């Protein structure tokens, strides 16, 4: 599929700089003022590791508190709500999105389409630093006063000036603005890059699936983020300038916010999972030593998921104020998404069919992803039934469902991508044994954490409770033990990072062999500072 | 207008109800705790939905099984397929990879079959939506108002019957009460009658959630939401606030005492004459020693 010419001088330790234009950039110039898509990608991945660590520590605190009923680790309801809120916001906006879109997207989209860099390199830099500013703000929202305690969905009236006085909520709301600008600029950059800068011969229908996934994601971001920004602006106006968009006493309506939020929030779900689909396609194809099955179906399934994802938002509001006929529509529209998602899953399995499968660490994460995503998808079908949602809405069945698709979906894909590409990014391979150990411990840990939560939900345990009825004690204990296992498993990941960065091993251009066919495998490992000295031509 | 039970009157209501029950039912289903009554509460290591306490929850239970069995079939099929592929086509058993990347027939099949499965799910599911929405012709209507952090119950058909319901604090739990579920003044409802709930809030969003009855609606300020139930069996049913509402979100449970119609009517008469006008937050129910003694005397012969 690909052909390119380049020289291999960059194989030394200083590979990044050997290919750079001119002198070695200083540390400040390289990392604070970067315009290089790989360096910015590295910054994003670093930010994602920090975000995941903070969000993960918060989840460990929550699971410790919930290990026993009437526990005394977090005794204040406000503190608990602030932790719940920050965990949600940070995991979504400062872990999953920076890792998948900003991190792997920046690193590999230009490389895969044969472009020298992103279309707007300075915009790219700006978009990263907005993310950092947003992170500072969201942390202020956690620590100032008693913290922002409205949940990540930020529903008014709980976060209006009357019920959440103090500066914390304003910081959290502004953090959404900052991370929103970051995502929006990044999305514009990806669309411009992918539509304009593909190498000669790389038509859209020859473009790798990861690029397709980022393209669809970027369109979702461009359409969804402004709606969130509008809703958040209205909240800020209500809080600080006396408007009453969401104040019933002034003619406003809290339900309006729910509509606006989920018009963003549901596409956001696909923003988090489509790039994961893209990574899984590459990993499955590489380790099955086969091209992806049904390429066009796979690409257009993502387009359909993205499109339908915009017209199903009110399935998050089945017990809120929407009409009965609306419930019927939103249920049916939601169920339809199962069809393109099914195409993805069956095509991955069909890719493996007849292949020669190697169980390297990235493939283990990919197989884990497929299996667990199918379970999360099945409970998604259950929850899509408005009649059943009247029972299950906001209880632990829902928590289990969305952690199966996020904690085990998006996170598994991030780890698959990490182990798949770390050699290309750093020039050093991860230790295979420790990678597999990380996978198996994490797999056991998250399943033990989240599977029992289905039972808690069926029994009727509501979410966002720091203390619960004694009857929920058993499964909560099991769930907390699982969380401790996945927490310990994450320490293995940090050890692997240490091993990668202290490794002396040098990797070949294409260290995965014949199964890896996209353009990033035609350049050295680590990828040189300037990827393509000559424009690659795709035949 | 908000009324609260005077704690001194509690013993009297126990006595009244136990007396009426003694000749009406022979089962002590009183608004306040009766030791031998049916209790529908979650239990440890529970793995399924609550025992249905209403026809709505029975329908939900049925549809849940129906959808979950179908989805279990799907997950099982995909898992077996995946396992077969991994065993049959691993590098050891299949060193040379094939090249098949298209098969129109199979691609059509995996679009058509899931679509048919969805159709099979959607038909009973839509029926359930309309069934749940059917609040017509209720026997009575209760307006439920969420507050930070307690519930207020206003019996629409009974002029002046409007009282608040607080969780019993952890350090005041008595034997027979459930921590984080029991309240000072339960919602008292007749069994076998269609009860319509009108749900709203006075401050932030709350969630009126009765898992064993299959009822759940957000309580939204400025908006009246509706739901309904028919409780099939006398006893105690529990629910909790299920929409984050601030620091006391986990401390505003719902407790329902379902009693036979005659007892309900007796309780209404009692409540109307004895509930004292009191808009201040009610204190948790603590019976004075003399009232407790009276209550036990009143209940024991029943």
Describe the structure in your own words:
The complex is a heterodimer of chains A (539) and B (302). Chain A has helices at residues 15-18, 27-31, 37-66, 77-112, 121-143, 168-196, 209-240, 254-288, 295-308, 324-336, 338-352, 361-384, 386-392, 396-426, 432-459, 473-502. The N and C termini of chain A lie close together (6 Å). In chain A, helix 4 packs antiparallel against helix 7, helix 8 packs antiparallel against helix 12 (361-384) and helix 15 runs antiparallel to helix 16. With 539 residues, chain A is mainly alpha-helical. By secondary structure, chain B is α+β, with helices and mostly antiparallel strands. Chain B is 35% helix and 22% strand. Chain B has helices at residues 7-24, 55-88, 104-133, 261-274, 289-299; strands at residues 3-4, 39-40, 140-147, 150-155, 162-165, 187-190, 194-201, 206-210, 215-219, 225-230, 235-241, 254-259, 276-277. In chain B, strand 3 and strand 4 (150-155) form a beta hairpin. In chain B, helix 1 runs antiparallel to helix 4, helix 1 (7-24) runs parallel beside helix 5 and helix 2 (55-88) packs antiparallel against helix 3 (104-133). Chain B starts with a strand and ends with a helix. The interface between A and B is large, with 93 and 95 residues.
Low-pLDDT runs of chain B: 1-35, 277-302
The first-to-last residue Cα distance of chain B is 35 Å
Strand content of chain A: under 5%
Secondary structure class of chain B reads alpha+beta
Query: Helix tally of chain B?
Result: 5
Measured distance between first and last alpha carbons of chain A: 6 Å
Low-pLDDT residue intervals, each spanning 5 or more residues of chain A: 1-22
Indicate the overall shape of chain B.
elongated
Quaternary assembly: heterodimer
- Into which percentage range does the β-strand content of chain B fall? 15-25%
* Number of β-strand runs of chain B: 13
